[in-house]
Design brief:
This protein is an alpha+beta fold and 135 residues long. It contains seven helices and three strands. The chain has a three-stranded antiparallel sheet. The longest helix is centred in the last third of the chain and has 27 residues.
Length: 135
């Protein structure tokens, strides 16, 4: 049994991460909208690499959470879906970034303080990633 030891990663900080925001695809959507402000569905799909169906589902979750505003408009006779962060979405994204920054900053001194031998011991217990054979 290993000895209990003190870690700098805060359980409270980890628990403050929102599952709605933290999911990789939704985080990508929020980051894009945070950067560009407002965009259409096609642009967001292209930037995030999500299929239309996946993007639609993630946007639905974000809209239900009050994080994203979705406007369906017509440009000429063509429908267009415009997207932007709601004020709550801006706050949620900035909170996510703040917590992640704090976690990294808290872990840095501990990582620097470990010897090369200790880092090697820790990483040697992690199984290697096996890439699928594509031939």
């Amino acid at each position: 049994m290993s000895e209990p030891r003190e870690v700098s990663v805060s359980t409270a900080a980890l628990q403050s991460l929102s599952d709605v925001v933290h999911q990789r695809s939704r985080l990508s959507v929020l980051a894009t909208l945070y950067e560009v402000g407002r965009c259409d569905f096609a642009f967001l799909s292209q930037v995030t690499g999500l299929t239309d169906g996946n993007l639609s589902r993630h946007l639905q979750i974000l809209e239900e959470g009050g994080l994203v505003k979705i406007d369906k408009v017509f440009v000429g006779k063509r429908p267009r879906t415009l997207l932007e962060l709601a004020p709550q979405g801006v706050r949620a994204f900035e909170h996510e970034l703040s917590v992640l920054r704090d976690l990294v900053e808290a872990a840095r001194p501990a990582r620097r303080g470990r010897s090369a031998a200790a880092r090697k011991r820790i990483t040697s217990t992690i199984p290697p990633v096996v890439e699928p054979d594509t031939t």
